[in-house]
Write the structure tokens for this entry.
Amino acid sequence: MSEFHPHPQLDIERLDALLRRALVFNHIGDAMIVAGPDGTIKDWNDAAEEMLGWSRSEALGQTPAIFHRPEDAPTLWPSIHVAVSRTGRWNGVISFIRKDGREGTCTAVALPLLDHAGNVWGTLLAQAKIVAAGELSPTGGAVLQQQPTPLLNDERFLLRTLIDAVPDPIFCKDREGRYLLHNAADEALFPPSDADCIGRTVFDLPGLKTHAALYHADDMAVMHTGEPIVNREEPFEKFSGEKGWFLTSKYPLRDDQGKVIGLVGIARDITLMKKATEELKAAQLRLIDHVENSPLAVIEWEPDFRIARWAGQAESMFGWKAEDVVGRHFGDFSLVHPEDVHLVFEIGARLAGGQDQRNISNNRNLTKSGQIVYCAWQNSVLRDSTGRTVSILSLVQDVSDRVLAEQASLKAAAERRALERKLQEAQKLESLGVLAGGIAHDFNNLLTGVLGNASLARMDLPLDSPVQSMLEQIELAAQRAADLCSQMLAYSGKGRFVVKRLDLNALIEDTTRLLQASISKRAVLKFSLAEKLPAVLGDATQLRQVVMNLVINASEAVGEKSGFISISTGLTRADHSDLAGTFFAPDLPAGDYLYLEVADNGGGMAPEVHARIFDPFFTTKFTGRGLGLAAVLGIVRGHRGALKVLTEVGRGTSFKILFPCAEGPAETPGSEPATPAGWRGSGLALIVDDEETVRVTVARMLEACGFTTRLADHGRSGVEAFSAAPDEFAFVILDLTMPHMDGEEAFHKIMAVRPATRVLLMSGFNEQEITARFSGQSLAGFIQKPFTLPALREKLQEIFPPAAAE
């Protein structure tokens, strides 16, 4: 080590004392205690105060007994002093007691303090590493080991040794900033040797020139203000060109009068630490950048559900800015859908309580504008070193597109299933329609014969004949049967409803009178018909069929035991919950509805029967039944109504039908127009129909009206007969449905032969259907099967002007 050459302005002994206090005592991290030969404490540094609890002012003048155990104090310090005086060094392990009573054990080293004559005037005790705190040394503080060392005969040598032992650079400067000394650590960083450094400033040293102005400015600030500069970050550049950073503290040196005569500095190389800090900061910035630009919303929650961080896509996802929500409880604004709030509390409680470390949840959230957002939340608990929950970190992904797609898929699947059910129902109804159409066609032809012959018979009998009333009942029954045929044609797709505003109560009373003879003699009909009901918009024939089918079905359910059939009407308000359990209700709006209820106290239905009652051809009765309830369901659907069935085995069954209310009063049915008195026609009529009964009956009716007739059994033969002598025929009466050639094709061929030909079309179709079908095609008229003689005469009079009558 180079010899120390103090500046001429400084007294070396005074400098030694100042450095001892400034360097060794004030700025060394180990506890340092100076005691005289008798053990009186002469000095006590800050580290000793921190370690043992007594301040310097409290410790000066005391003996080491203040921090030794009572049993150790009388012998321990004298033994250390003797060892130091004899061997020049003592080291070992001692126990101590702090001012607050806590106990501990530490390693220590003791060195002699010599005066100029080489006499020991005191002992320096350095207590370094704490071995254990709160418990005594097993040896009770006895000396564990001693190492002899050469005699230290110069206190300045001791001071220099301690300074050089410090791993951080230490330096001392005068008021002009010239170096007075520096330690080995400083020399290692900034060569050359002391001989080249002492007495020079930072501007003269190659390794310090780059930042000399910065260093010198700090030196002068300490000199002029007398205030220390603590922990200042300063850059440095070594002679080799290597760059780094110091954490430097500079303290003023004062003489006995307090005048600043220089400074002492301690620096720590923080290059690696600063680099690590910068890398950490860069990593943090990258992390923050990732968070802020994350495709996810990043939300951090306090344990009490207050928002601590609102980053990433949180603002764009939910609409609120960070300043709007940070520090607020999520319940203070509508972030979570009200129906999902309890789920959030449950998840948060599990995380905060330690049941879960992380979890994933799917919630409905609300944006600032109130829009629903479907989100997937990945929640993790952040805990400190003690395991306490610090916060909950949530990464939130907007999965609305996926959820809505899934919902759309489910909806599409439900709609597909509904469509399949409707297709199955349509197929069932189509099967019913095929059968119904075939039956109706044949039955209408039979009824044409019944009605036609009955009307012919009534015309030939005197008005006071007792047979007139019988023939009238035959006509009435045949007309009701014709109405049913019209309904069957409607199901087959070959007819349409005749819709009018109807009085539901009047229709029920009219229908049930005809049913009295058809129901069980043991069943009592009970009526509960509300008065002053609104009209219902519907087809009278179809609604009669509904009443007939339900009443007959109830009668068969009552069977041979005594029972009742209740028929009720009324007005009810139905909301969506009321409509939920009905057939065909999903599209119906809430509101006022007319209801028809038919109930019985029969045997009821088992669930497996109840599930199939509307299937076409399904029946629990004898073979050939099973169309009634299927027809009821179709009629209700066609009238935009809803139907509900309540049944229980042994408790009876109730069918309740809801119909929309019609605007305006019910229409009063008009009476059948009177037969035109005395009207007769003339000429040859061609009758074309594939049913012989119809041909013969219509021929007799036309002959009764004054016409002669010629018959054809199908469309092709009719066209051939007409084409042979078209001018002979006054008109043609033509059936619509025939084999070989139907009526529509025959009509066009006849009109092609003679466009002025009058053609009267007859069919089971109603007039609205035919009018639409033959619009603009010069059809002379239409009459619906079956028909009576008066109806035919009225239609002929419309076709032939009065000049054609005889």
